Amino acid sequence: MNANPTVDPSVSAAQSPSATSPESWTSIEQFVVPFDKGLRRIVRITNETNPENGPSVTLLVTGNVVTGELVSYARYLLELGSHYAKGITDENAKQSLLAQYKTSAEIALGKPPMPHEPQFIHLRKAHLVFGVGLVPTEGMIFRIRLSMVAGYSTMGLRGAIQDVTE
After folding, report:
1. Structural domain contains residue 104
2. 77-90 average pLDDT score
3. What is the pLDDT of residues 91-103, one digit of tens each?
4. When comparing pLDDT for 88 and 164, which is higher?
5. Does any domain span residue 60?
6. Total domain count for the chain?
7. Sign of torsion over alpha carbons 155, 156, 161, 162
8. What is the 3-class SS of the chain, one letter each residue?
9. Residues 6+ away with beta carbon under 8 Å from 56
10. Is 131 domain-assigned?
11. What's the predicted TM-score (pTM) here?
């Protein structure tokens, strides 16, 4: 008599589909990490309205705390272009690079609402939080896949951490 009634002794382990084998998958949806609908809505509104100054946010991303100012995809492109241009000494090359990023940002702003939801969140003046300190101290431009965000707050930590460390 079989002690484990769920195991068929006539089927070898090599013949039995495991939970990780493609034969046992019901759909790819079981492996997709769901987005937080509220955070996704905030990102979508920011992308569509492109405010000059976005809200401060604090994110828990794969066990790390990231804090910064939420910006639209278009503003992220402009700031990224400016960041890269700082390292270029040839003025023509610098202007060409800035023009390319500006064109990309204008395209992003000129599109009607996207048929799909945003996949990334974009921050400027972003910091990784370690203990009571921020890295880097001057902030950075940061792009994070929304599916990597485990939690969030629409309040930034920058002021609170600076108060503690001063």
Report:
1. yes
2. 94
3. 999 999 999 999 9
4. 88
5. yes
6. 1
7. negative
8. CCCCCCCCCCCCCCCCCCCCCHHHCCCHHHHCCCCCHHHHHHHHHHHHHCCCCCCEEEEEECCEEEEEEEECHHHHHHHHHHHHHCCCCCHHHHHHHHHHHHHHHHHHHHCCCCCCCCCEEEEEEEEEEECCEEEEEEEEEEEEEHHHEEEEECCCCHHHHHHHHC
9. 67, 68, 69, 70, 154, 155, 156, 158
10. yes
11. 0.70
Whether residue 4 has pLDDT greater than 50: no
Range of the domain at 86: 36-45+52-165
First-to-final CA distance of the chain: 72
Provide the residue type at 127 as one letter.
H
> What is the chain's length?
166
Place of tokens 């965000």: 149
Token pair recorded at residue 117:
């939801």
In a domain, 3, yes or no: no
In angstroms, the CA 123 to CA 36 distance is: 17
